[in-house]
């Protein structure tokens, strides 16, 4: 193994550690919120939360520990065992992504007023993604070889199993085939992101407060973090971050060195699990329904305008408007209505 290969393997190892560290760090700092908002609720949303969080938690324990294990390179292990270890890791990655996708589909189901059409669309896209994943994993042709050093990775790059380290070398054509499975996940994430932005835009238009605001300004308003309207759970922020993580992993299959292809798979998977867990914690904090909380569950009407409860209780509309050059166009200020006197008819 030359210097370039050693460098690729080391960088892949570091990215695995970053992903796993991010997952476990966020798990422990949000454990109190999980206990308060999830553990006592026997709901479908709570069950989804447990499956998502703890499948990712336990399946990534070997990935987090094995880079620090030093073993003898004189151990003889059949190639078939290495291939099985690779397959198990891929199945766990697929299972994690399936759970994440199911949660986001349920979230879209709630955001669109429990529309079966939206669910049908997303299930159709999801079925296509499953087909692509099965095709990409079928009849894999890779050559196992054994190397020294830190070689923990996934998805046809470097794998550690028990007392030996095996690496699967993948041809460029094979890497492209493997990339299609992550591209399918990216398509699903992008579809959910687009549906969320469209739903937020049309809902605010219906409320009338932002009727004159162009789409690009509405998106800028959302990105800036203004939570006057229905962005308290920020679903498209979470989903866009997951899509970007998947996109970065896809790029390694096309642009990365042979030993770096797919090295960000663990990082992308950990990001997805963590962000979805955060989303669900935010939703459970604001309502018992969790991922099935609809758009209007935390919205109240004051003076013809829809505002979240916390905004209405602590600030008036004028105080809630962000100080931007176009803030005057966001909310029309109404003059206070005169109060009737005692002698009024």
From TrEMBL:
Keyword Cell membrane: no
Domain of life of the organism encoding this protein: Eukaryota
InterPro entries in the cross-refs: DUF6533 (IPR045340)
Residue intervals passing through the bilayer: 6-25, 46-67, 87-106, 118-138, 184-202
Domain DUF6533, residue spans: 14-58
KW Manganese (keyword) present: no
Keyword tags: Membrane, Transmembrane, Transmembrane helix
Region Disordered, residue ranges: 323-345
Protein name: DUF6533 domain-containing protein
Organism expressing this protein natively: Mycena alexandri
């Amino acid at each position: 193994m030359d210097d370039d290969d050693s460098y690729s393997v080391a960088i892949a190892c570091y990215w695995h550690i970053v992903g796993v560290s991010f997952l476990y760090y966020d798990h422990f700092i949000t454990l109190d919120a999980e206990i308060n908002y999830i553990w006592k609720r026997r709901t479908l949303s709570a069950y989804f939360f447990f499956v998502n969080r703890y499948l990712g938690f336990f399946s990534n324990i070997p990935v987090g520990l094995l880079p620090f294990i030093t073993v003898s390179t004189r151990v003889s292990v059949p190639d078939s065992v290495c291939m099985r270890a690779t397959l198990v890791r891929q199945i766990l990655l697929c299972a994690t992504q399936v759970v994440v996708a199911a949660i986001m589909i349920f979230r879209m189901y709630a955001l669109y007023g429990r529309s079966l059409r939206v669910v049908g669309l997303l299930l159709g896209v999801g079925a296509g993604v499953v087909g692509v994943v099965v095709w990409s994993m079928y009849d894999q042709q890779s050559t196992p070889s054994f190397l020294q050093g830190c070689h923990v990775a996934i998805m046809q790059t470097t794998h550690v199993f028990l007392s030996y380290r095996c690496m699967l070398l993948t041809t460029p054509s094979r890497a492209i085939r493997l990339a299609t499975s992550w591209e399918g996940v990216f398509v699903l994430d992008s579809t959910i992101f687009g549906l969320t932005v469209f739903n937020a835009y049309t809902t605010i238009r219906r409320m009338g407060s932002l009727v004159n605001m162009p789409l690009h300004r509405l998106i800028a308003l959302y990105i800036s973090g203004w939570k006057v309207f229905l962005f308290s759970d920020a679903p498209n922020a979470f989903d866009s971050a997951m899509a970007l993580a998947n996109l970065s992993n896809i790029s390694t299959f096309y642009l990365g060195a042979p030993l770096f292809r797919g090295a960000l798979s663990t990082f992308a998977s950990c990001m997805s699990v963590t962000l979805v867990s955060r989303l669900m914690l935010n939703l459970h904090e604001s309502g018992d329904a969790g991922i099935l909380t609809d758009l209007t569950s935390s919205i109240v009407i004051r003076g013809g305008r829809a505002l979240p409860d916390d905004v209405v209780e602590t600030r008036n509309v004028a105080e809630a408007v962000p100080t931007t050059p176009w803030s005057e166009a966001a909310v029309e200020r109404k003059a206070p209505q005169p109060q009737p006197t005692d002698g009024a008819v």
